[in-house]
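hi!! sorry for the late reply, been swamped w classes. u asked for the two structures so here they r. pasted raw, havent cleaned anything up. first the sequence of the first protein and right below it the tokens
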Amino acid sequence: MSRSATAPVSARRQIARLLWGLLALGAFLGFLALGHWQVERRAWKLDLIQRVDERVHADPLPAPRAADWPSLNQDRDEYRPVRLQGHYLHDRDTLVQATTRLGGGYWVMTPLARDDGSMVLINRGFVAGRDADYARPDGSVSVTGLLRLSQPGGGFLRDNDPQADRWYSRDLDAIAAARGLAGVAPYFVDVTGDPQAAPAAGPVPGLTVVEFHNNHLVYAVTWYMLALMVAAGALFVARHEFRPAPRGDTRHDRTGTH
């Protein structure tokens, strides 16, 4: 019996095979890298969640003074319990839109003047409406709460509008400029406390939600599945492409003749 002959492969088809192979390899390696990156991000996020949970339940420390402001770090300082003293400037209150377990309303952001001349914006808590007749304590006050860093830009898919006094995030620089405040700290403090003990008209403290979205495992699995699909698709095409074809079969090489 004679050995069956196979049709030669054109140079153009060989180049096409090489280019598609490189493209598939690049996609496979890229999806693998993205999956590995999400695995690393998940480990970092879990570590962050653990550290923040431990931090939230620690004893409060004195709030950072001006000399400490440049060294503030989100990973290290966000949600740190702090305490500070001063007196409120109620005529400079700012209401920032909020959604809480009590429903929609506003955070009451009040500047606290400290004895060193600096200002710290205090989120005194939640009120349901802009016209709420909430409590406004006079004189020296002591505040305990969670340190939070500025939230520039806006929120709720809307930008802050200082001219209209519409605020959707706690952008400290923008609020300070709108209220004519100087020496404002780059952080604010969410007042902690028992919401049940709040005045009837508010503000209601203790509604801060300490939550971190952690979907990195889902993302990692998605990227790895895409890498697997690319590998399976490339293998299927390769088996079909490199299967020997009888001479004269033009399905694999159009240089043949009938």
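now the second protein. again sequence first, tokens right under
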Amino acid sequence: MSPKAASDPDVQELDVRGMRKLDKHPRIFATYAALPVGAAFVLVNDHDPQHLHEEFETDHAGSYRWEYLNREMRDWRIQITKLAGTSLPRVLADTTTFTADTTAADVTGAVWKLQTRERDLDANVIALPPGQAIDAHTGPDLDVLVHVLAGSGQLTTELGTIELTPGVLLWMPRRSRRQFTAGVEGLRYLTVHQRRQALLLDTSRARTPQ
């Protein structure tokens, strides 16, 4: 289906200039979600919505069209067209870029996160400098997959330890006890799990073993 032109009377116009800032983006994304494939709406705003454009790129890269129709002061008009029924599969990152300089002492915690708003999964790349640890704790009420990307370390469980080396794919059952400790090379690993509001690992508790 060919996208409708802005002059088409069937193209909806959404004027958000009088809305509260908090309400604008949810209304815009709800309008976009309701579009059939090939349809469009014209967004009317009082400024260039660059942050909104960045959110569209995060959530819908390649599956929408963003066209400026007018750029006058307090009368910015952008036609947003839905090109596909869902967000498209795409490359989010190259994990080989996370393997460099694992010994950096000032790089701790999540160095990459899955950012799309509408998702069922959470994913993070966690970095621990050499010798640092995430204190022993009981995991959340969900299963977690861990893929070691670089460096080395140990996972201390309720009954023993597991050596962590690049390539290891680890399953952590829900509510299992765990403590991560980085080796002399530091440690970086990818975690994937069902989406939840709280952080999987509180890296603010990372410490250097005595």
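hope this helps!! also noticed smth abt the second:
Confidence is low (pLDDT under 50) at residues 1-6.
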